[in-house]
Design goal:
Blueprint: H1 8-22, H2 28-35, H3 39-43, H4 49-55, H5 69-83, H6 89-95, H7 100-107, H8 113-121, H9 128-131, E1 176-179, E2 182-184, H10 189-199, E3 205-210, E4 217-224, E5 227-235, H11 241-244, E6 254-257, E7 270-273, H12 274-281
Parallel strand pairs: 5-6, 6-7
Antiparallel strand pairs: 1-2, 3-4, 4-5
Length: 286
């Protein structure tokens, strides 16, 4: 049978139970390790960990001493320098000195940090190497307006999307997503495999082996605290490709895909649709 995702009330009860057992409000990482409920599963019901804690009737941990803005931005810049890229919230939680939530309280959404850092590092030559790693501000890009020899209505260019011929001597890219180092959406099964590797741990999976033949992957997944089960995974760009490829349905537990477009998928096979998964996980990155 497919692994059932806990509903909202079950997650709230798990938070209360964990707090009672530990005699304090658990952190996000402690809760995940204690219950086996993954970050993806609780983000399906709550916009953030603190909101889940508050809805459970508990107080989020607010015991931290107020942190100076400059110290926060300096540590963020240090990590940009080390990684040679802008860190996600997850990367900062692993390698930063402060909590990622502190940045939200001080500066707003995570996506604003490059601009906040520019303001902080203005005229500070010691941060010039970090500034060079930040994306160019839209306001700094020169806008070039198409010229025309005759009058055109304002909507002439905005309503038409030009299509170009496909060139056969170079690769194809998906739409921009900029999700944890992956710049574009997957356009094939290999992209799905790569993306699953990025999020497998947060989905509660531990990969044992990946192979060329069916099934593509053998993994274990956490079903409760300290307990794991073996599952067979097949990767597909679209879920219905599983049917089209003629795979036996009795030898697969999970289909991992980018698009789920197989409404008649057997009920015992769980479908992990990564295009939806990353929407939820991106909440913890912004």
């Amino acid at each position: 049978m497919a692994k059932r995702t806990p509903n909202k009330d079950e997650i709230l009860n798990a938070i209360r139970r964990t707090a009672s057992e530990l005699r304090k409000t658990p952190s996000r990482s402690v809760f995940i390790g204690h219950t086996g409920i993954s970050e993806y599963q609780f983000l399906k019901h709550f916009p953030s960990w603190n909101s889940a804690v508050e809805e459970a009737g508990l107080e989020p941990d607010t015991t931290n001493v107020p942190i100076d803005n400059d110290k926060l931005l300096a540590d963020w810049g240090r990590l940009v320098r080390e990684l040679r890229q802008i860190p996600t919230r997850v990367q900062y939680r692993h390698h930063g000195k402060f909590s990622a939530g502190s940045f939200e309280k001080h500066f707003g959404p995570w996506s604003r940090l490059p601009d906040k850092f520019r303001e902080f590092a203005k005229d500070k030559v010691e941060w010039s190497d970090v500034i060079a790693l930040l994306p160019v501000k839209k306001s700094d890009i020169r806008q070039i307006k198409p010229t025309s020899t005759k009058e055109e209505s304002p909507s002439t260019h905005s309503c038409v999307m030009q299509k170009h011929s496909k060139l056969d001597d170079r690769p194809i890219y998906g739409n921009h997503i900029d999700f944890r180092g992956l710049r574009h959406e997957p356009v094939n099964e290999n992209g799905v495999i790569f993306l699953f590797g990025i999020v497998a741990r947060e989905l509660g999976y531990s990969v044992e082996a990946v192979q060329a033949g069916f099934p593509d992957c053998e993994a274990k997944r956490q079903i409760t605290a300290g307990k794991w089960q073996r599952v067979q995974i097949e990767f597909e760009f679209e879920s219905r490709n599983f049917r089209d490829h003629g795979h036996p349905i009795d030898r697969c537990d999970v289909i991992v895909c980018w698009h789920h477009n197989w409404p008649d998928c057997p009920s015992h096979i769980e479908v992990v649709e990564l295009s939806e998964v990353i929407k939820q996980l991106a909440k913890s990155d912004e």
